[in-house]
Specification:
The chain is an alpha/beta fold. The protein has a single domain, classed as 3-Layer(aba) Sandwich (Rossmann fold). It is 35% helix and 28% strand. Strand 9 and strand 10 (217-218) form a beta hairpin. Helix 3 (100-110) runs parallel beside helix 5 (144-156), helix 4 packs across helix 5 (144-156) and helix 5 (144-156) packs parallel to helix 6. The longest helix is centred in the C-terminal third of the chain and has 16 residues, at 174-189. It comes from Methylomonas lenta. Keywords: ATP-binding, Nucleotide-binding, Transport. Residues 2-220 form the ABC transporter domain. GO terms for molecular function: ATP binding; ATP hydrolysis activity; transmembrane transporter activity. Belongs to the ABC transporter superfamily. Macrolide exporter (TC 3.A.1.122) family.
Length: 220
């Protein structure tokens, strides 16, 4: 599914070149449950952004579902992202002025999904995260755990094969955090390829496959 070969990512900061990723080689097959761990500044989020097609490597190749996505246009990458990849972030990234239901609906609006189908799928998505009674609430009316559940429902509304989660429990208490991990793992059990970036070893160790990245390189 995902095959990264000799991935490097450099950033220019003033007169210094920062080597965020140094020759990363990584393959993730369909349906895997992978955690990526490492200290702050190790390159975890940079790697996730490249896998998510939110950033491009300085050099190297990234093959996704048989396509070399390092050679796609921005428009092509946006379509591949929309159709294949869901995202869950530490800070939720919900739109404050929209209700929970409207936040979930937004990716379908952008994709041109019919209104009747959108409304039906939103109700199904709310039910799937046990928040049918919170659809008309705005983000400031929801708890942290509820916000992350809505974010997961939004991430999955287009039925992506890949779900990427960057510190998904970082803003939650331990009880809400474990509920979110349980929900993500349930999606993996249903066939979704799950990759979690975390600094929490207790969460990282739950994955079936664990990767550690230090100084921009994967430890062997």
């Amino acid at each position: 599914m995902m095959h990264l070969t000799d991935i490097h990512r450099y950033f220019q900061v003033g007169d210094q070149t920062v080597h965020a990723l140094n020759g990363v080689n990584l393959s993730v097959e369909s349906g895997e449950y992978v955690s990526v761990m490492g200290p702050s500044g190790s390159g975890k989020s940079t790697l996730l952004n490249i896998i998510a097609l939110l950033d491009q490597p300085t050099s190297g190749n990234y093959i996704l579902n048989g396509n070399d996505v390092t050679r796609q246009t921005d428009d092509e990458l946006a379509k591949i992202r929309r159709d294949n990849i869901g995202f869950v972030f530490q800070f939720f990234h919900l739109i404050p002025r929209l209700t929970a239901a409207e936040n979930i609906e937004m990716p379908m609006i952008l994709a041109g999904v019919d209104n009747k189908e959108r409304k039906q799928k939103v109700q199904q998505a709310l039910a799937s995260v046990n928040l049918l009674d919170r659809g008309e609430h705005k983000p400031n009316q929801l708890s942290g755990g509820q916000l992350q559940r809505i974010a997961i429902a939004r991430a999955m509304i287009m039925q992506p094969a890949i779900l990427l989660a960057d510190e998904p429990t970082g803003n939650l208490d331990s009880k809400a955090g474990m509920e979110i991990i349980d929900l993500l793992e349930k999606l993996n059990q249903q066939g979704v390829t799950l990759m979690i970036i975390t600094h929490d070893n207790n969460i990282g160790e739950r994955a079936k496959r664990r990767i550690r990245i230090v100084d921009g390189a994967i430890e062997i």
